[in-house]
């Protein structure tokens, strides 16, 4: 009985479906074809015409006026008087406000500041080329011939013969077939990195890389991973982690880059570049070295950290450096793999969109490069002696910690003096103010000018306040001893 009822229900449903299809299917009265064949399009057109007429006859929208009474002049004056603007940036502490100083003359590693002759250890004048007459005379002659500007970017009426000469001489000095110069040093590395990597690529960087490197990595939009500062075991751990994730995700091949500095700007450290090179070869990565502070300082001839560890420019794919350090000019340059360096002229934003280096700064850098080539081998041993002596004496100052590992002891002229851990724990957030007072005391009482670096709030890693000292090959042993004595006296007087 139940089966026969089910069969009847199914038959009824099938009949209903057939009747519905006869109406809406081809030939049915509700099928669009039937509708159009019987002048149904006139209905659609009439409907659209009616909508257009309706919209055409509508009045423009006018907001209804508010019923509030207008303010009187007295009320407006009261509101203005009560208004207090919100600060655009956090308020600076008094210790954070830099003391304005006026430099009237520079004589080698000395300067006349506020009418006082002081030992200038705040400028990266490592080989004292900034005080030699040859670059200055070359710059004066270039101004007389070319003026002070270059009139545009390199690719648009901004290339002068002195640019090409400087690039040729830098390439020859570094042992590379090609070189590209930039008009601003911080824009060099920040332009090179995005031209070498994009969102599909991988970048492994030391956690202590400077702000310019961080900005270049950010602009590249690549997948970024950091390893502990100068820790090769952690570098391998990060590389293994990245390789495992790539295998798991079955990602296509991409460009991979390891970034370190020749001398780290925030610590004065030197990386074990030979170990970094061996690791990058094992994992098939490219290597980029920022030699901004190590160019003209490390290596037998001053070619930088790569030369210090016996590497050639062909071993490292990309080398970038500033010309505002040893060369005493402005701008930066990039050497390395010819394809990568040539690509900067099309994709490096700092090269393509910035006005080119003023010609007189190019000739000043070129003349300083000639001095480095001729006198560097004689000056560099003296600089290393100064580094060893100064660090040995500064390490004996109580309450002060000298940054830098064993590789930096006799090689790095960039010295950061931070508070010892016990002192830093006692003073807490007053560390910057105390360090600044030490710098002021050294200037006022001992005639030694050092700097207290400020860092951007956008830095990925917070850096402890420090006295930054740039040592110079022109310093005498008496000046080195005087520096240590000045730091000792300032620490004794100011630190708790």
From TrEMBL:
Q: Which cofactor does it need?
A: pyridoxal 5'-phosphate
Instruction: Identify the stretch annotated as signal peptide in this record.
Output: none
**Could you give a GO molecular-function term held by this entry?**
pyridoxal phosphate binding
Q: What is its EC number?
A: 2.3.1.50
What highest taxon heads this organism's lineage?
Answer: Eukaryota
Q: Which Pfam families match?
A: Aminotran_1_2
Which GO BP terms apply? Answer: ceramide biosynthetic process; sphingosine biosynthetic process
**Which Gene3D superfamilies does the record associate with it?**
Aspartate Aminotransferase, domain 1, Type I PLP-dependent aspartate aminotransferase-like (Major domain)
What the entry lists under InterPro entries is as follows:
Aminotransferase_I/II_large, AON_synthase_class-II, PyrdxlP-dep_Trfase, PyrdxlP-dep_Trfase_major, PyrdxlP-dep_Trfase_small
* Pathway(s) where this gene product acts: Lipid metabolism; sphingolipid metabolism; Sphingolipid metabolism
Q: Which family does it belong to?
A: Belongs to the class-II pyridoxal-phosphate-dependent aminotransferase family.
Give the protein's recorded name: serine C-palmitoyltransferase
Q: From which organism does this entry originate?
A: Chlamydomonas euryale
């Amino acid at each position: 009985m139940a089966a026969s009822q089910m069969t009847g229900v199914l038959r009824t449903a099938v009949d209903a479906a057939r009747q519905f299809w006869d109406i809406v299917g081809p030939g049915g009265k509700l099928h669009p074809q039937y509708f159009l064949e019987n002048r149904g399009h006139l209905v659609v057109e009439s409907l659209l015409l009616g909508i257009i007429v309706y919209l055409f006859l509508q009045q423009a929208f006018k907001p209804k006026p508010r019923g509030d009474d207008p303010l009187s002049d007295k009320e407006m004056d009261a509101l203005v008087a009560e208004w207090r603007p919100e600060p655009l940036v956090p308020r600076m502490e008094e210790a954070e406000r830099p003391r304005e100083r006026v430099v009237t003359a520079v004589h080698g590693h000395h300067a006349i500041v506020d009418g006082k002759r002081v030992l200038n250890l705040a400028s990266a004048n490592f080989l004292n080329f900034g005080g030699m007459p040859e670059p200055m005379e070359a710059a004066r002659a270039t101004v007389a011939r070319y003026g002070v500007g270059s009139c545009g970017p390199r690719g648009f009426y901004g290339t002068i013969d002195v640019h090409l000469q400087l690039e040729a001489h830098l390439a020859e000095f570094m042992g590379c077939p090609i070189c590209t110069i930039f008009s601003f040093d911080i824009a060099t590395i920040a332009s090179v990195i995005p031209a070498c990597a994009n969102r599909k690529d991988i970048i492994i960087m030391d956690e202590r890389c400077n702000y310019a490197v961080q900005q270049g990595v950010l602009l590249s939009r690549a997948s970024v991973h950091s390893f502990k500062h100068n820790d090769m075991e952690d570098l391998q751990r990060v590389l293994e982690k990245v390789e495992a994730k790539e295998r798991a995700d079955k990602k296509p091949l991409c460009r991979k880059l390891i970034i370190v500095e020749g001398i780290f700007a925030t610590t004065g450290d030197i990386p074990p570049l030979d170990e970094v090179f061996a690791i990058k070869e094992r994992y098939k990565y490219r290597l980029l070295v920022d030699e901004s502070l190590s160019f003209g300082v490390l290596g037998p001839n001053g070619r930088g950290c790569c030369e210090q560890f016996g590497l050639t420019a062909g071993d490292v794919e990309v080398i970038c450096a500033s010309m505002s350090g040893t060369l005493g000019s402005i701008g930066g340059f990039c050497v390395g793999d010819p394809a990568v360096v040539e690509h900067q002229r099309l994709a490096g934003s700092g090269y393509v969109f910035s006005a080119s280096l003023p010609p007189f700064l190019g000739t000043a850098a070129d003349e300083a490069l000639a001095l480095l080539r001729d006198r560097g081998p004689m000056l560099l041993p003296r600089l290393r002696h100064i580094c060893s002596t100064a660090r040995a004496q500064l390490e004996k100052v109580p309450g002060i910690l000298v940054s830098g590992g064993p590789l930096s002891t006799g090689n790095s002229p960039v010295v950061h003096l931070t508070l010892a851990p016990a002192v830093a724990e006692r003073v807490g957030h007053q560390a910057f103010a105390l360090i600044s007072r030490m710098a002021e005391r050294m200037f006022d009482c001992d005639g030694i000018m050092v700097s207290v670096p400020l860092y951007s709030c956008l830095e990925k890693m917070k850096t402890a306040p420090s006295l930054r000292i740039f040592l110079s090959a022109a310093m005498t042993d008496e000046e080195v001893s005087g520096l240590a004595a000045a730091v000792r006296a300032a620490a004794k007087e100011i630190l708790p």
